[in-house]
Design goal:
By secondary structure, this protein is mainly alpha-helical. It has a single domain (about 25-480), classed as Amino acid/polyamine transporter I (Up-down Bundle), CATH 1.20.1740.10. About 70% of the residues lie in helices and about 0% in strands. The protein has helices at about 10-15, 25-35, 40-45, 45-55, 55-80, 85-95, 100-135, 155-170, 170-195, 215-225, 235, 245-275, 290-300, 315-320, 325-360, 375-395, 400-425, 435-455, 455-480, and strands spanning about 280, 285. The chain has a two-stranded antiparallel sheet with strand order 1-2. It starts with 7 loop residues before the first helix and ends in a 10-residue tail after the last helix. About 60% of the residues are buried.
């Protein structure tokens, strides 16, 4: 079977023929990564992690962070060797061939586009009560929720997806500037949370540490993994980065390190200040998160103050320790900051499509660059419209786990790719070399398998179904139009 492997030299040559404008530095890349990572995961999913693992969710953050750290080291070496857009898709093309590259690129749609839709809905959930409190205007549920949540269409979700799409259409540098402001708001909010919550920590609140056993911890790790998703979007900006061999590793590793420290401090503050025991159905059996049974149990007075019963976990913690006004500010910060996550996810998705189009696997219009703004404007509009549509009508409950499934596929491919290239092409210049590769690479791959195994069965089936659809598109359209197809120019 012809694997159609595209050499690194060919990939770099293709990028030179149709490339994007380089305008981003190391600090901007680090902020791009932080903007993608800090968002719905820490502001919202902390409550779900508490229901699955109790105080053991602190270990869940460590497990998910360790897998991402190992993967980031692999990403950094590949990005320094191949400083072009495309992320895991491009690396897979060079190492494992076109079919695997397509599967990885298709999986990245689950990571970026689905996550952007989920966060758009999450932003809407903050926006609606904020409008009601500030202006006394009640947004009708028909226009504040999708049909699966009792409404008709989620107009605020469409609004924020549209605004972010317009910003990306105008330009990368402008998007990065806005992102820097939003990142500052998020980092400030988490710092303030730690300032109030950590002094209130009591050791008794960490007992029992794993009320539902290690199964609960691993399940929480698979979900809380969403809190780290997005740092790899830094590598999709390689073609728009000045001195990418130096700045891409800085952006990848720096953003992940900063976010991991914040997460462990925030999780410790949340657990230690008010406790994080799950709401139990019976001794040793907790209610499943996101179910009507848990909602009903949370309405009981004895459970109302429990962390797993909160829709806005961090603000809830501060209210429980008496910092009511600060809690409101934390909620406002989350509302202001979530658009940066949508921005980064849309940014990453459009760049993946751009490179797949440039390789001939998707229509050529997807890689058109705007004459004035120097952005891939056609695919930006298409992606933004799709994200807005999904956010307007589709349910958000399982989207985080769906996104995680796609991400883990891409991460596993990267961990394999860096090891293969060390053997196949050991002399190629590497401005960054993954330390202890033969530990880091296998650890990243096995960690991805472990987290995928820990996902619920629905997420696994959705991923398999999505992959089957992707292969249908590839063999029906992309394979015959690929730059590596017989009779084509080859890039």
């Amino acid at each position: 079977m012809n694997l159609r492997i595209k050499s690194l030299d060919d990939i770099l040559a293709t990028a030179e023929k149709k490339s994007l404008h380089r305008s981003l530095g190391g600090v901007q890349l680090m902020l791009l990564g932080i903007g993608a990572v800090i968002g719905t995961g820490i502001f919202v999913l902390t409550a779900e992690a508490a229901q699955k693992a109790g105080p053991g969710m602190l270990l869940s953050f460590v497990i998910a962070g360790f897998v991402c750290a190992m993967t980031a080291l692999c990403y950094a070496e590949l990005a320094s060797m191949v400083p072009v857009s495309g992320s895991a898709y491009t690396y897979s093309y060079a190492v494992m061939g076109e079919v695997v590259a397509w599967i990885v690129g298709w999986a990245l749609i689950l990571e970026y586009a689905v996550a952007a839709s989920a966060v758009s809905v999450g932003w809407s959930n903050y926006f609606v009560p904020l409008v009601e409190r500030a202006f006394g205007f009640r947004v009708p549920i028909e226009f504040a929720k999708g049909p699966f949540a009792g409404g008709v269409v989620n107009l605020p979700a469409i609004l924020i997806a549209g605004l972010v799409t317009a910003l990306l259409y105008v330009g990368t540098r402008e998007s990065a500037r806005v992102n820097s402001v939003l990142v500052a708001i998020k980092v400030t909010a988490l710092t303030v949370f730690c300032f109030y919550a950590l002094p209130a920590v009591q050791s008794a609140n960490f007992e029992p540490f794993m009320p539902l056993g290690f199964v609960g911890v691993s399940g929480a790790a698979a979900s809380i993994f969403f809190a780290y998703v997005g740092f790899d979007a830094v590598s999709t900006a390689a073609e728009e980065t000045k001195d990418p061999q130096r700045n891409i590793p800085i952006g990848l590793i720096g953003s992940l390190a900063i976010c991991t420290v914040f997460y462990l401090l925030v999780a410790s503050g949340a657990i230690g200040s008010i406790g994080a025991q799950p709401v139990m159905q019976s001794p040793g059996v907790g209610f499943a998160p996101g179910t009507p049974e848990l909602v009903a149990a949370c309405k009981i007075a004895a459970n109302a103050a429990a962390l797993p019963c909160s829709d806005e976990a961090l603000a809830h913690v501060l209210r429980q320790i008496g910092a009511t006004k600060i809690a409101s500010l934390i909620g406002l910060a989350a509302f202001l900051a979530l658009p940066s996550v949508i921005l980064t996810m849309l940014f990453g998705q459009t760049r993946i499509f751009f490179v797949m189009s440039r390789d001939g696997l998707l229509p050529a219009a997807f890689s058109k660059v705007h004459a004035r703004f120097k952005t891939p404007h056609v695919i930006t509009l298409i992606t933004g419209t799709s994200v807005a549509f999904a956010a307007a009508f589709l349910p958000v409950g399982k989207l985080a786990d769906f996104s995680n499934a796609g991400t883990l596929c891409a991460f596993a491919a990267v961990s394999i790719g860096v090891m293969v290239l060390r053997v196949r092409d050991p002399r190629r210049p590497r401005s960054f070399r993954t330390p202890a590769l033969w530990f880091v690479g296998p650890a990243a791959f096995l960690g991805c398998l472990f987290l995928f195994y820990s996902l619920d069965i629905t997420s696994k089936l959705v991923f398999l179904g999505w992959g089957a659809l992707g292969l249908t598109v590839y063999f029906g359209y992309g394979r015959s139009r690929s730059q590596l197809a017989p009779g084509r120019s080859g890039g």
